[in-house]
Amino acid sequence: ANEAVTLVENGDTILLDGGSTTYEVARLLVGRVIHVVTTSLPVANLFASDANSDLLLIGGNICPRTGVAQGPLADRMIAELRVRKTILSVAGVNDKGFHNNNMLLAATERAMMAAADEVIVVADSSKFGRQSLTHLCGLSDVQYLVVDNGITEDWRSKILAAGTNLRVSGPSDNG
């Protein structure tokens, strides 16, 4: 999370996904002068009383387990937006790309990607070599991948070969 926030500039409009890693990114962004758009109720709660940021909460079907809006209503609302950066988390990364474990969520995340000038995926190294229920996108479909320093040299090479910028956090920056 510490590494991911370095990619956000004051004044940016960012679209934040749900998930534990994106929540940690959001937590570190509270107090910054940014415009936040989110599908996540927990993330929205962080910014609801932050006088430095503007908040737009995306509606739709709320997943009770995660508190994240997803589905056709969320997708249509996102289709009306343009943001500087989208920050997503994923359940798995393999040679075919990024994966998630909820088909409605993956469709909403694709809408989030389409709304952004830059897509940033945050994932911990334990997700590599895994796939999940549904394919989100290819490795080359995101501009930045932020990961902890547990990523292997083989995966570093694959990510860079795909043309994706790789940001690896140091030992004290895991988040």
State the end-to-end distance: 5 Å
Q: Count of helical segments?
A: 6
Briefly note the structural class of the backbone. alpha/beta
Mean pLDDT over the full residue set: 95
Low-confidence stretches: none
The run of helices and strands is HEHEHEEEHEEEHEEEHE
Shape: globular
Rg from alpha-carbon coordinates: 15 Å
Strand order of the largest sheet: 3-2-1-6-9-11-12
The profile of the biggest β sheet is:
7 strands, parallel
Q: What proportion strand? A: 25-35%
Tell me the total number of β-strands: 12
The helix content, as a percent range, equals 25-40%
Can I get a quick summary?
Helix content is 29%, strand content 30%. By secondary structure, it is of the alpha/beta class. Strand 7 (92-94) and strand 8 form a beta hairpin.
List keywords for this structure.
seven-stranded parallel sheet, 30% strand, globular, three-stranded antiparallel sheet, single chain, 175 residues, alpha/beta, 6 helices
Structural notes for this entry:
The chain has 175 residues and is an alpha/beta fold. 29% of the residues lie in helices and 30% in strands. The chain has six helices and twelve strands. It has a seven-stranded parallel beta sheet with strand order 3-2-1-6-9-11-12, with helices on both faces. The chain is globular.
